[in-house]
Amino acid sequence: MSPSSNGPSGLSLAAQLQNLISATQIIAEEINEELGARFVQVTFPPRNATGLIDETIFEMLDNADAGIFDMSGPVIATGGAPVHGRVSPNVMYELTWLHALGTPTIPVIPEEQNSEFYLSQLYARPVPDYTVDTLVGMLRTQIRYLVHGDSDNPAADPHRNPISKFYNLSIVDIASSNGLATGYYHNFLRYVLDTRDSPFLRYPNADFAVELSRLVIFRPETIGEVEGMNARLNNELGRRGAPPVETLLFEAPLHSRKLTLKHVGSSLIDIPTPISSLAHSPRYRKARRIIPRSPFGDSSEGSELRKRKDKLEKSMIDSFFRVMDYLLEEPGLDGSRIHVRTIDEFLAETA
Questions:
Q1: pTM higher than 0.70 for the full model?
Q2: CATH code of the domain occupying 13-167
Q3: Which of 46, 126, 256, 272 makes a 20 to 30 Å CA pair with 111?
């Protein structure tokens, strides 16, 4: 689509996009002033962009916390009433890419333009025109919701889209975390939480001298923390004079071997070691490689790169636990036994 094509507002599509950028920047400045920090940053494609979805565009999409899209098509003169053309395929591709990533989006569409096909399944923000003042007024609430998380209209939640609605997770969450969390569930959780027979139902007998009350799953702060969690837990328990980590064997029905379980007092405990494998995922490895190559060092730009990596790392850990929670909805499991804690939280409880 040519940037000089006219949108429904009468402005060129390029002018509409520029007004949308300006409106977003105004709202971002308002929020940053309120918070006293540069919390919201607005990025947009280069003005000389060729229309190709190149590496620069992919990096922008991958790093974005949210995306705002102009979904208007060009007005086509037919000799009669003007006909609204369809949205650029590039824009639709970029929109659904963010949906697959699980990134919240705000599609903007002219009031007089009908939403078709995939767009008809979204909450698109209808606007009467593309002046900067109008766009600021129409977008302020949703952008503030992205920052503050409060909204009176759940249907307008920018996180909602047809992909996440169908799977209850983004596709990237499924791809990066589903295999690890599913393996953790099938190899461990479903046996120790089975309502028919589990470690919680075996007391008292020769192997279970302690009545277990809960399963504490330790949540790491970072992916790299996982490997050292076991040593840290043992050291901290010993230093505090708390009950030590003890082991017991559980012969679960239908399992090919006995499970070696660990507990501290009445708490069955487990470190989800599969999370450490997330360090080998392509997105994480790419984010980690960018930082040493960055020429910015400890500058604000270098700090921003590290923040992006940390944010990705946190989201991957979040995704693992979301998939785990989803799998625990299976019937026949006692998910109420699970308590997710950091090591510090657990130590505070056992002090």
A1: no
A2: 3.40.50
A3: 46
